[in-house]
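Issue: ligand-bound run for magnesium ion - logging full I/O for the record.

Environment: standard queue, default settings, no custom constraints.

Inputs:
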Amino acid sequence: MASSTSSGTYDIGIDLGTANTLVYARGKGVVLNEPSVVAVNAAGEVIAVGADAKRTIGRTPSGITAMRPLREGVIADFDAAEQMLRALMKKALPGSRRLSRPRVVICVPSGITGVERRAVVESARGAGAREVHLIEEPMAAAIGAGLPVDEPVGCMVVDIGGGTTEVAVVSMGGIVTAQSLRVAGDALDAAITTYIKKEHSLAIGERTAEEIKIAIGSAAWTPLDTDEEGVPTRRTSFTVRGRDHISGLPRIQEITEEEIRDALTEPVDAIVRAVHRTLDACPPELSGDIIERGIALTGGGALLRGLAERLGEETGVPVVVADQPLDCVVNGTAKCVDEFASLHGLLTGAKQQPRKAVRL
Ligand code: ADP
Ligand code: MG
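Outputs:
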């Protein structure tokens, strides 16, 4: 209780995302923004984390594996997740700061299990945290998007990350109804890989698939960015380098925007359906609020061109991409760090975890 007056300490907030981990330090802002990737050697030791590790994906020599411990919103590899969190916390906290044992607020995907929650809390403690509190991703996203989460009005947020899409209705400081869908940025990349394999017999790596998505991906029905005559005003094709499935040799292939729209149909439809289901499950009073205030899109997936418009057309509710969608979760988490005394009610499982049981 006495610890809620720690204005002088270097408390931190962590957005532990499936694709990117961001760390906020009180009084400093976001001090770290790295892909959630670790590279592990044959002995299981972590040899790189973050951007250094991501660069090695698909290029590692034998014996070294680059992996994303939080793929799909669940902790796929406990050990690696723990080591990543420790390494990133160490990087974000200079030695002297670590000694002050900060209070840490960590945003976790809402689909993680109780065991995984405890693993996150233990890792953060191991890395020097004095107190660890967790916040659910849709809540942090809603706060970061500037929605009035503790007022008696319904707000809807759709956070599209790498592994999961979280759709939630928030009101009076709580999550009223939510869906966590394992279809998000990675699924879009995978759909592109599958399409190019099927239609062009070309094998591409996951980083290439992501590059294609960011360069020419779209969730719209028709071509975007055309002038009055329908002539494209921006890039509409992408030169893909991959390996031919049949000959095994490297090959170059031109891919069009239209093909990628086609490839993305299934995962985009799944996201639209999840939003529909959440609206369906919403109490009528709150539905009224949402129609009036619209839906906020956050997470990196919110940047997929045409997605906000598409969701708006299919639901009849205005959809707005939040400012800096990739930073909403860390900003929401940061707010909980800065205003801990008034906002800690929004945190889940906030209680301090008991120290390891004393063996008798
Ligand atoms: P997480 O919270 O799971 O770590 P993020 O919110 O950081 O995820 O978003 C990462 C996802 O956003 C990745 O799948 C990435 O490919 C995607 N992304 C980033 N920029 C864009 C863009 N301009 N267009 C489409 N997708 C994007
Ligand atoms: Mg996220």
